[in-house]
Every structure is written in structure tokens, then in C-alpha cells.
Amino acid sequence: MNCPVCREPLIVAEREGIELDACPWCRGLWFDAGELALLAENVGRTLSIAEGGPLAAAVSSEKPRKCPRCDKAMEKVFLGQAPRVMLDRCPSHGLWFDHGELGSLVGQMAVAPGSHPEAVLRFMGETFGVAAPPPESKATGNPAEEVER
Ligand SMILES: [Zn+2]
Ligand SMILES: [Zn+2]
Q1: pTM for the model
Q2: What angle do CA 23, 26, 28 make, to 5 degrees?
Q3: Would the pLDDT of 80 be above 90?
Q4: In this structure, which ligand is nearest to the CA of 10?
Q5: How far is the CA of 51 from the centre of ligand 2 (A)?
């Protein structure tokens, strides 16, 4: 499975009992359908919106990205409220988070009673701390710098 942004192979990162696919280059994260709700649950948060349900369509000048599973163009959708987080979604397979988008969304999730908020921080730190391969093996620039919001 390749990163929809960099087209480089994603690496499997297991965090909080969930297997995620992470891109070491742009630090994006792929969630298979259902994994986002599972993550929220595992870190003691509740996801207020069903990730697979109807979501506000986002209008964006960004090029459509392709689903890493089926290679069809993903749709741009909004999740969350303040701020709204724009994500790429394949209705059949899951969600793509650019670096930083997951943190923004998780920060908005309601904390379940008796949960441990530090689990979220631990999750974030570890996931985004994935070691990147040496930069010299990459032909052109840093893909993260091309992101414009
Ligand atoms: Zn990438
Ligand atoms: Zn797909």
C-alpha cells in the first residue's frame, strides 16, 4: 500500500492496539474503515460523527488523492467543528489524515469519563515519531512543504 501523497510505501505502526499505516515521509496516517472509532475508544474518547456516514463535502483546490487500497479518487470531507479538519475519504475503505490533522481532531473529541487523556498524547508522540529514512535517498524536496491549506 502506498502513500496517497508521496506514493511511497506505507509502514505499519501499531498504536493503542490498532494497526495503522503511516507514511514516514509526510507523516500522514491511513485509517481503515472503523479504525478511527476504535482509536477514539482506546484512548478514552468518543467520536461524535460516524466516520463512514454522511459528512460535509469539502471544496478544495487540492488535487484529489487516490485511495491506497482501491486507487480510486478519494472525496474531500470535513470532520470536527472547531476547527473543521479536511480529510480525504474513500467511502469503501477509510480515511487519510495529513500530518497534524489527527491531533486536531482527537483534541476535539469528548473525553470519556474515567479515561486517561495522556494516552492520546502518548499515541500522538509515538505515531508521529516514526523514524524517517535518510533524506538523501529521496529525489525531490519535502512533500510536507507542498501542503497548502
Ligand atoms: Zn507520504
Ligand atoms: Zn478505496
Answers
A1: 0.72
A2: 55
A3: no
A4: 1
A5: 14
